[in-house]
TrEMBL record:
Xref: InterPro entries: DUF4440 (IPR027843), NTF2-like_dom_sf (IPR032710)
Protein name: DUF4440 domain-containing protein
Signal sequence interval, chain numbering: 1-21
The DUF4440 domain, residue ranges: 34-145
Top-level taxonomy: Bacteria, Pseudomonadati, Bacteroidota, Chitinophagia, Chitinophagales
Organism name: Sediminibacterium ginsengisoli
Keyword Cytoplasm: no
């Protein structure tokens, strides 16, 4: 009986320790991807095209349910046009609190899922668009880059 109790206690301890280690790893990944999200969208909010060029991978695929598929060059060009058209509109993006989810992709990076809103002023009125997004992040050579972006709800 004592051997059975000892075995159960050891098993429980190992399972709890392994689970805590996984939670800590997931928590670190969550913090990392949340940071990369803020790097990307702080650049967006500042209309900083040079930083966006670094955050997006050269093989980027950007899927937009309102505008279709674009690669890296077209995406950068689209952002440039958007920024030029919105110099004074107050265009900005805000992540909706509590919506960010991060999933590890072993040997590659992570998938980020969330909801955000885009705000700008048009004809003196504040316009708000609520959208869903999915981003695939690759970790390679010590840096994180977005390789796939899916923007939904246009």
């Amino acid at each position: 009986m004592n051997k059975i109790l000892l075995t159960l206690c050891i098993s429980f301890t190992l399972t709890t320790t392994h689970s805590s280690a996984q939670d800590a790893t997931k928590n670190e990944l969550y913090k990392t991807i949340a940071h990369m999200d803020s790097v990307m969208f702080d650049a967006f909010n500042r209309q900083d095209l040079e930083t966006l060029k670094l955050v997006f991978a050269s093989n980027l695929e950007f899927y937009n349910d309102g505008g279709g598929l674009s690669g890296y060059e077209e995406t950068i060009s689209n952002f440039k046009k958007m920024f030029e058209a919105n110099k004074t509109s107050g265009l900005r993006r805000e992540l909706l609190p509590g919506t960010l989810e991060v999933y590890p992709v072993p040997g590659f990076g992570a998938i980020e899922v969330g909801k955000h809103k885009f705000i700008h002023t048009e004809n003196g009125k504040e316009e708000v668009g609520l959208l869903k997004f999915i981003q695939t992040w690759r970790y390679e050579n010590g840096k994180w880059q977005a390789t796939r972006v899916i923007s939904l709800g246009h």
